[in-house]
Amino acid sequence: MSEYQEIPSEQEQLDFYDKLRAKLVQFLDSKKGKNNKFTKYLLFAPDLFHLMVKTMMDSNVDTKSKALIGGGIAYFMLPVDFLPEGLIGFGGFMDDIVIATIIINTLINKLGPEVIEKHWSGDDQLLNVLQKVSETSDQVISKIPIKSAIANVMVRESKTK
């Protein structure tokens, strides 16, 4: 995996997943978390992150797809993005969830659902999760302060799903 040196190690990715899930569970148990309008989507964040990590390690996935996945993993882990978690709290994971959904939908269309679904460990069915997120993505996009090329792509993708 030397061609993916920019991507955090598998252990760093797993540590990120464990920390993210623990923090989200704690937040969702709080009063503020229970009243958050995106609560039902936030727990998808660690599951989608985990799915990308596992798919990245799949030898049946081509290099170009792995580069796309690597970008999604990095987006989750970078502290600065469209909706920074450090500034707006856990609601900031909604853009990460939307980006991951676009990437996973792209991979399913390219590789087939069976290649991706075998790595899914979430409680809900993967295709149901992707549909729920796609339906809600317009709300998330409207909160992004800067209209960018990625935001425009996200809007187009959500409307075609």
Apparent shape? globular
- What is the H/E order? HHHHHHHHHH
Low-confidence runs of at least 5 consecutive residues: 1-5
Fraction of residues in helix = 55-70%
Largest sheet: number of strands, sense, barrel closure: none
Q: What fraction strand?
A: under 5%
The rounded distance between the terminal residues' Cα atoms is 33 Å
Instruction: State mean pLDDT (0 to 100 scale).
Output: 78
SS content category: mainly alpha
Number of strands: 0
Number of helices: 10
Gyration radius over CA:
15 Å
Q: Can you characterise this structure?
A:
The chain has 161 residues and is an all-alpha fold. It is 70% helix and 0% strand. The chain contains 10 helices and no strands. The chain has helices at residues 10-29, 31-34, 39-42, 44-56, 63-77, 85-88, 93-111, 113-117, 126-141, 149-160. The protein is globular, with a radius of gyration of 15 Å. The relative contact order is 0.14. The model is unreliable at 1-5 (pLDDT under 50).
Give the secondary structure arrangement, pairings included.
Elements: H1 10-29, H2 31-34, H3 39-42, H4 44-56, H5 63-77, H6 85-88, H7 93-111, H8 113-117, H9 126-141, H10 149-160
